[in-house]
Amino acid sequence: MAYMSQEGYDKLLAELKHLESVERPKASAAIAEARDKGDLSENSEYDAAKEAQGHLEAKINQLKLAISEAKVVDTSRLSTDAVQILSKVEMTNLANKAKMAYTIVSESEANLREGKISITTPIAQGLLNHKVGDEVEIKIPRGTIKLRIDKITVG
Questions:
Q1: Which of 96, 109, 90 is CA-nearest to residue 2?
Q2: 32 CB contacts (<8 Å, ≥6 apart)?
Q3: What is the rounded distance in angstroms from the CA atom of residue 56 to the CA atom of residue 49?
Q4: DSSP class of residue 144?
Q5: Each residue of 43-69: pLDDT tens digit?
Q6: Which helix (H) or strand (E) holds 94?
């Protein structure tokens, strides 16, 4: 089961709808067009279209699975007492005094450019259940970082 925001769930549904209603017909048309060109044994266009269709169907199945396993979290019921999924955490790196802010989200919603990190990352795991003012040491691939939690809000 993957906990996610309503926004993340809606994005998954929109992507699935797009793949099924727009991309799938395009893939079928590309296969039909390549098939019309004759001998399939030496038709690289046909092979490429079939392969693209296979990737598309795999993506559609992956999205259907993610949607079926999704549990939308009611953000109005979340607490800001401690870090949890959908918490936006403002913190300070105690080594260099750099300020950082991340929202902890499900793996499918993670997007570093938007400041959303997956709950499965070392930083998110190290922050979970800690409170404002806590100093936490987190092992990351490059060593250990020490962070102080400055503020927790609901993402």
A1: 109
A2: none
A3: 10
A4: E
A5: 788 889 999 999 999 999 999 998 998
A6: none
Contact 106, 2 (CB under 8 A): yes
The CA-CA-CA angle for residues 143, 144, 147, to 5°, reads 145
C-alpha dihedral over 75, 77, 107, 89, to 10 degrees? Answer: 80
3-state secondary structure of 90: strand
pLDDT of residue 42: 75
- pTM here? 0.71
Return the residue matching tokens 């549990």: 71
Give the burial class of 36: count Cβ atoms within 10 A of its Cβ; 0-12 exposed, 13-18 middle, 19 or more buried: exposed
What single string gives the DSSP state of each residue in 96-121?
T--EEEEEEE-GGG-BGGGTEEETTS
Residues 109/8, Cβ–Cβ less than 8 Å: yes
Q: Pairing relation of β-strands 143-154 and 87-93?
A: antiparallel
The total of other beta-carbon atoms located within 10 Å of residue 4's CB is 25
